[in-house]
Write a structure and sequence with these properties.
The chain is an alpha/beta fold. The chain has 10 helices and 16 strands. Bound molecules: adenosine monophosphate and magnesium ion.
């Protein structure tokens, strides 16, 4: 359904609950990115999420709960490893793939026998989840394939006309999506790099965890799609891009890590973290990609980010953003 007026942006749990109880979708803040939330146990609400995002039905939704104990209502065979990780992280940027109970419909899981569950670490959204008698299915609150939103204003710019309410919880503190870990295999398998560093996962779960984030166009777990998180201008990776001429540099934007580009005009450059801090870089990534949309440039050249900590998740998103153009 399309609502003709713009969304109301506010911080009322009561208003958010009212819309959700009417099977409407509402944007919610989390520490990773803003989510487009609906009652995970009502197909009517779940269908609206797919419609508003223009999301293909093969891309499963993550279900948000207020604590780990609530996972038992929606999944069975919850492994000790999953529990250990939750005890170490608490509410945070990690999604647990578990065997789903029938109460979660195939619409949510895109027909998979598993479901992705997460406890987001945001005070307002935790309060909202506690106030509701059902969990919230919530993918990122952006049109499918585009850059994820990290402020209420990002959501409003793209989906404001299609949803009644945006719960404003400020700018996201982590800024990239959750790390997804599949706990239904013999060993934990990382399906998506994200806001929880692999090094941390290994310190809790051991070195034997498997990382399987290979790209595909027929994904069991999209976010694994080749092309995703993409701005409207072509994005080139600095370590992959063909050489540009001096004239071409004049027309490019530069997404740097901690150093400016010597040939691109200063006014067309944005640094993710002048101090070389990977957490700060993750927090700025999507907002910077959006900021380039308003600059008079023909494309974006993106620096290579150190491949450690949250840098791995950032590089993963830049690679997928670049897929169409390189
Ligand atoms: P988003 O919330 O937009 O970042 O998208 C949610 C992502 O979670 C999907 O694109 C999948 O990659 C992943 N996901 C959700 N449920 C499952 C599942 N049951 N198995 C594997 N991946 C999942
Ligand atoms: Mg997304």
């Amino acid at each position: 359904m399309t609502i003709s007026h713009s969304a109301i942006i506010g911080n009322s749990i009561r208003d958010a609950c009212r819309h959700l109880n009417n099977q409407e979708v509402v944007a919610i803040p989390t520490e990773t990115v803003y989510g487009l939330a609906g009652n995970a146990l009502e197909d009517a609400a779940v269908i609206k999420i797919f419609e508003v995002k223009n999301r293909p039905s093969f891309d499963p939704l993550i279900v948000h709960c207020f604590d780990f104990k609530a996972f038992e209502n929606y999944a069975f065979d919850i492994s000790k490893a999953a529990e250990n990780l939750y005890n170490a992280v608490g509410p945070g940027p990690v999604t647990y793939i578990l065997n789903k109970k029938p109460i979660i419909s195939d619409l949510v899981s895109s027909g998979l026998p598993t479901v992705g569950l997460r406890v987001p670490n945001h005070p307002l959204t935790l309060k909202l989840l506690r106030a509701l008698p059902y969990p919230l299915a919530a993918p990122s609150a952006n049109p499918f394939g585009y850059v994820s939103p990290t402020t209420a204003w990002h959501v409003n710019a793209q989906l404001g006309k299609k949803i009644p309410y945006i719960l404003n919880g400020g700018a996201c503190t982590i800024g990239i999506e959750s790390t997804i870990v599949d706990f239904t295999q013999d060993v934990p398998v990382v399906l998506r790099l994200g806001g929880l560093a692999i090094e941390f996962l290994q310190s809790v779960l051991g070195e034997s965890i498997v990382i399987n984030t290979t790209s595909t166009s027929q994904p069991a777990a999209p976010g694994m799609l080749h092309s995703h998180y993409a701005p409207s201008k072509p994005l080139f990776l600095e370590n992959k891009a063909a050489h540009f001429t001096t004239l071409e540099f004049e027309t490019l934007g530069y997404l740097g890590f901690d150093k400016r580009h010597p040939q691109i005009p200063q006014s067309q450059q944005l640094l993710l973290s002048p101090n070389g801090d990977l957490s700060e870089a993750a927090k700025n990534l999507f907002a910077h990609l959006r900021a380039f949309e308003n600059l008079p440039i023909s494309g974006i050249l993106a620096a290579n980010i150190p491949e450690r900590g949250l840098g791995r998740g950032i590089n993963d998103r830049l690679r997928r953003a670049a897929f169409k153009s390189t």
